[in-house]
């Protein structure tokens, strides 16, 4: 089962009569419960890949299967966490998290929301509107809202991109904690190499629309950013990103 | 840096600062509440100046006092209407026409606005026509409406509804079109059907715009009300104005005009209060660019 992409092509425009592929013949197989980071520079097609997985975009050619079924548009089975949190500003924190279960008329919507509020550490903020939350808190609500539906796959589009360094690190630890507790398949988009190495079971490096590297991270959690093994992995991806290119990559 | 220069800069200040009793924000909210009384006070001053000018005029005979009745005389006229038992009939009739026309215009504008934003072909068919007839003053349509809908309530209410509908429509379509696509995406990914996306996301996102539109369109509603009552009615505040013109009853005109102004102010206030309740979520977060 899991998530399987076969021969995925996606272009948005033609250059000199030929499609300019943002994703060019991408193959990828993700197991259930795996934490995969899609790493790449801006413009490498990583967000397009996530939008395809979410169902907001449709493949030009190829096939994406989730748990044995070809995807056809967005679905509650694939929860999405956005970079700009995209919380509903007219609903309180609690109402935002309850949104999914309420749509399904689940009787335990309130209980589900309360548990998730505890999980993401937002006790006491239930009645607040998103406008008054800080970036980190809003993102926690975004994650809780996606989890409330109990999706099979969690798609995260640079969820920590808008946060400052201190909060980012805390949130990474919490995402790992949540993942260990819920055992979801997580596909996490990022442009930060250390973030990818810290979080993922497997890092997929995307470059110019194709998969450049696909590396399993064999480190025990919690991972030590300062250890030489960690640095080795970081070096691998730095090399992968800057190969055939002049200039150095400045990490984070 | 020389030692004495350093001491000069870091000299302890005379003034001591203490922890404030209330936050600046709470103080600002309190101040905003007292502003309400200032606004009421301004109305009082307006009527007092009007009374004073009328009194001066009586003394010095600058112009015929009949041309500018004093607020007191207007009040007296109002009292006589009250005694005759017709005051509330006129106010009620006008209010009934205004509110019916306003609500019908509002509902139709929301329905048409949703249709325009949902179906491109409908937009292409309807919008050019509305752009053509929209700018024509409502007054120009009154004779047609009288012929189409008769001299009863139908023609008046439909004219008022039309006058509300035209300005409202732009606010509704803009509000719906400006919905953040990320919110729609996240709602769909949480399992919302297209109908649920509309009721829970698009409509709620358009509400601030719709509320602004309601307040902005209210002026058009009221002018249509007065126009309709002046041209073919036997009751209502607009009718009082046109009827008293025929009998040269200046106080009655002023009474009706004042009542129209009052009714508008009250209704506008109700809409503002409603806005505060419905758009409570907008109150949190940044309220002004720079604190003052």
From TrEMBL, chain A:
Catalytic EC class: hydrolase
Under PROSITE patterns, the record lists:
ABC_TRANSPORTER_1, ABC_TRANSPORTER_2
Q: Where is the ABC transporter domain?
A: 3-233
Q: Which SMART domains match?
A: AAA
* Hydrolase found in the keyword field: yes
Q: Name one GO molecular function term.
A: ATP binding
Q: Does the keyword ATP-binding apply?
A: yes
List, alphabetically, the InterPro entries matched. AAA+_ATPase, ABC_transporter-like_ATP-bd, ABC_transporter-like_CS, ABC_transporter_ATP-bind, P-loop_NTPase
Annotated EC: 3.6.3.-
Protein name per Swiss-Prot or TrEMBL: Aliphatic sulfonates import ATP-binding protein SsuB
The record lists the organism as: Ruminiclostridium hungatei
UniProtKB/TrEMBL annotation, chain B:
Membrane topology recorded in Swiss-Prot or TrEMBL? Multi-pass membrane protein
Q: Does the keyword Oxidoreductase apply?
A: no
Give the source species.
Answer: Ruminiclostridium hungatei (Clostridium hungatei)
Q: Which gene encodes it?
A: ssuC_5
**Protein name according to UniProt:** Putative aliphatic sulfonates transport permease protein SsuC
Q: Which GO terms describe its biological process?
A: transmembrane transport
Segments spanning the bilayer are: 37-53, 95-117, 129-151, 157-176, 218-242, 254-274
The record's comment on protein family reads: Belongs to the binding-protein-dependent transport system permease family.
Which InterPro entries would you find in this protein's record?
MetI-like, MetI-like_sf
Could you tell me which residue ranges the ABC transmembrane type-1 domain spans?
A: 91-272
Which Pfam families does the UniProt entry name for this protein? BPD_transp_1 (PF00528)
Q: Which UniProt keywords apply?
A: Cell membrane, Membrane, Transmembrane, Transmembrane helix, Transport
Any one GO CC term of this protein is:
plasma membrane
Subcellular location(s): the record lists: Cell membrane
Is-annotated flag, keyword Ubl conjugation?
Answer: no
